[in-house]
Amino acid sequence: MRKVILVNVLIFLAGLALLEVVFGSWFSDTPALYNFTKPRNVQKTYRSQFPGQPEVSTYTVDRYGFRGLDGNLDEIFILTVGGSTTDQKYIDDSFTFEAWLQKLYAADGRDVDVVSAGIDGQSTFGHLANFSFWFEKLPQLRPSYILYYLGVNDFYRLQEIPKFDQIEGAGAKARMRAAFSYAKDRSALIAGAKVIKSLVAPPRVAHFRSGAPIPWSQADWTTQALIKDYRTPQVLESLSLLQSRIAKLADQTRRIGAEPIFVTQRSSSWMEHDGRIWGLKKTLARRNADALQGLGPMTGVDHHQLERMQAEAILDTCRSLNGICINLFSDIQFDNVRDFYDVVHTTPAGSKKIAEFLYSHLRDIGPQSQKVGDRRPRSN
């Protein structure tokens, strides 16, 4: 009896091994994205909570870890890099700001590929690591431009957050975690289990925990700031460190033959109303903003001032490096309730507005002769 059981177990294990060899990606030349929080070969569906997109939205990431790649790696026009506001996990594939931007180029007769490399939670610390641990492992990757959508995850940070930005840790435990992640990323069986899980129990939309934006009313909004002096040594240090990382990003971008585009961000904790800045009377604390420790309570007006200082630091550095600099922070008009679903993440309507704003600044970049149908055919 024991021999029969042993033989059956061995046959079962051999069958599993055969499935892994045939359907897994153990021998793939795809870059080692297991070192990131970014998945690959993923297609998830979510019950949409927004008007203007399908009732069931689809989130697709290809084998390179990119979202929205239609052609070849050497034909990408704009590669977008950022955090969850760039990844846009809960926005349908066809309604991200990259998808809208590509449609605007197509409507103008230009067949270009606008592709997302966003990673939830990632900041400029992780953006820099993307090059050596991701982009440079794709020798065919030759985007014309890399667009960095910056601000939210770098908000007055003095150090990286290992959960999102650190690529490889040290020690035996870190190596074991990396090995497990490597296996998990390539296993056909685990991939199948993920699909079944997503069908049976769709994951919770975590971003909604911060609550929906609040409509304007004098009961919830104020024109008063609580902080007297924002320019503390820690604040100034964080801005200086951010500027140095931006300079490094511009250098890395040009090393792979692309040009950098830096775009500032804003939150929905403030708005312009009747020609004045109004902020929420109660704002969520930015738990990772270690440079703001000790400043005390804030209103949305304080957040506006801090976001403005950060945007100016980003743009000043961008201009000094002759990059393409876009001040979305101050130059776009959002409807906070319609365009955001929480403090920083945009709805499909907000993503479309971002695309239209970006296109107004980017419509003249790149080759103007690249018309629809001119792009080289895909390689097999």
Structural summary, described in words:
- This protein has 380 residues and is α/β, with parallel strands linked by helices.
- It has a domain at 64-168 and 207-362: SGNH hydrolase (Rossmann fold), CATH 3.40.50.1110.
- The protein contains eleven helices and ten strands.
- It has helices at 2-23, 84-87, 97-107, 124-133, 171-186, 188-200, 233-255, 300-320, 328-331, 336-339, 348-362, and strands at residues 42-47, 56-61, 76-81, 113-116, 145-150, 221-222, 259-264, 270-273, 276-280, 324-326.
- Helix 3 (97-107) crosses helix 11 and helix 4 (124-133) runs parallel beside helix 7 (233-255).
- The longest helix has 23 residues, at 233-255.
Give the topology.
Layout: H1 2-23, E1 42-47, E2 56-61, E3 76-81, H2 84-87, H3 97-107, E4 113-116, H4 124-133, E5 145-150, H5 171-186, H6 188-200, E6 221-222, H7 233-255, E7 259-264, E8 270-273, E9 276-280, H8 300-320, E10 324-326, H9 328-331, H10 336-339, H11 348-362
Parallel strand pairs: 3-4, 3-5, 5-7, 7-10
Antiparallel strand pairs: 1-2, 6-9, 8-9
Helix pairs in contact: 3-11, 4-7, 7-8
